[in-house]
Amino acid sequence: MASPFSSSVSVDPTNQLKITDLPEVLQLLRRHGYYGTSYDLAQTRALQTTSYDLGLFLGLSPATLDVITKDTKGDVRRCLRECLTKWLLKADDVETKGGPTISSLISALRKLGENEAADGIDMEMHPACRILAHYYSNRFLLSVLPELGISLYGAELIQKMIIPRYIQGESLLDEIQAAVCADYKKLETFADILCKYRVTADIGRAIMRDYREAYGSDDEIGLKIYLPKSVTSELYLMQLKLADTFFIVRSILMRNPQSPSIDIIKHVLGRYDMTLRPQLALRKDVHNILQLVRENSSLDDVSMLEYLVNEFNIEEAKLVIEEYKAAIEKLKMKLCQFLEKELLKVSSLLDYITIIVDKDTGYSVLKDVQRLSSAVLSDDVRITVVRSDYSMWEDSKQESFTNTYVGPTVQSKDTTLTTEVPAEKDEDQVMLLQEKVESIQKQLEEEKEFHEKEKQFIIKKYEEEILQQKRDLIQNEERIATLTEQQEEVTGDLKHKTEQYEELRSDNELTHKQLEELEKELKGEKLRKRS
């Protein structure tokens, strides 16, 4: 049987440690300072308690450990040996802790606080685990890991889909460590994921560099494809078109008097994706809600926005989305034709494809190239997209628009011996630092340029909308002025007629008095005539 101590260990039952490996396990622990050959009698009790705790972390039950403690009667070596024996025989809950593997042993040692022994075993047994172990103390990485849950789950680095606020980075890194110990190639997958996000790209590149040094080309056959700058330029324009699409849909919603209320929009989106409900609760207007929708969309996936528009049957917005979808499909077809043309130059079956883009390409475009390429190529081929200034992947002096066939390279996987890389000269280190600073400055400038263009684009749209509102306001003011003038005319006529009425009423009163006087005179004359 091939010894598990000469290669990476899998959690597959056929490759787990067996009871016959007990002597090697004991020697491995002693080589790395865990329970040496000599003990201080004053420390015996403390050491035996540590063996008890180690057994718990390995999956042994308290009942089993109590029996071992009683039987060994303070014999530290025998206590450790009996604990490991039960572990190798898969007693109690050992299987639920990953089974008897180097990975689970290292994990138990770390939980016990025996980090020096765990690191030493990692270094000897498993370079991939050793590389990853360096990042347990990286608080920044641990804080952002929950935000990468979807990518980690899709790459089978963690077992369950998680909600970021309900999981700790340490727990995720433990799961990633287990996956890497089971299959060292998963470390490269993890590095690829980190490289796709600007905030974790430096960590991803460092892990990838260490991985390449430890494992080389991994006997795989690959193809390098240099993507024309014209394609990345079209991707950049498509990003602007996506921003324009969201802006237009938002404008349609805001000016439509029959648009649904904020609460109804939140309810519909929450029904579409339940995980968004906590974030939706914090959004106060249409602008902020659509910003959340955009954050959960991608260049070739606006399904959430489309669902919202279709749910409320907003015909004008439907046309905008259909126009965008047609444009992105056209771009995907162009990218597919280019990649297929490059693949025809190679007759062999490929394990991976490395797509190299211009060194000035922004992170957002880099991510879109990865996504669109994965969508148009076979799932059996691993795709990595890098910029030409990432020396850890390829030499940046390669000629553009050519492809290079990478033949298989064999490298020994014997990890019991490691070779230290000589330190570089101070001048080289200074030069590398200068290059890195220039690279970071360039990245910041391009990100700033992109956001500035997007800002100007949105400002222009706002100005056009404000101008239209001003035109509408002027028209309304003119209408109001006309109505006011008509009102004044009517008021003037009414006043004139009122004056006429008052004159007539006065004349009528005067005439009425005159009649009364005439009647009195007539009565007086009649009385005189009678007398």
From TrEMBL:
Signal peptide: none annotated. CDD domains: Death. Residues 54-125 form the Death domain. Residues 484-512 are annotated as: Disordered. Residues 492-512 have a biased composition (Basic and acidic residues). GO terms for biological process: signal transduction. SUPFAM superfamilies: DEATH domain. It comes from the Eukaryota. This is Death domain-containing protein. It comes from Amphimedon queenslandica.
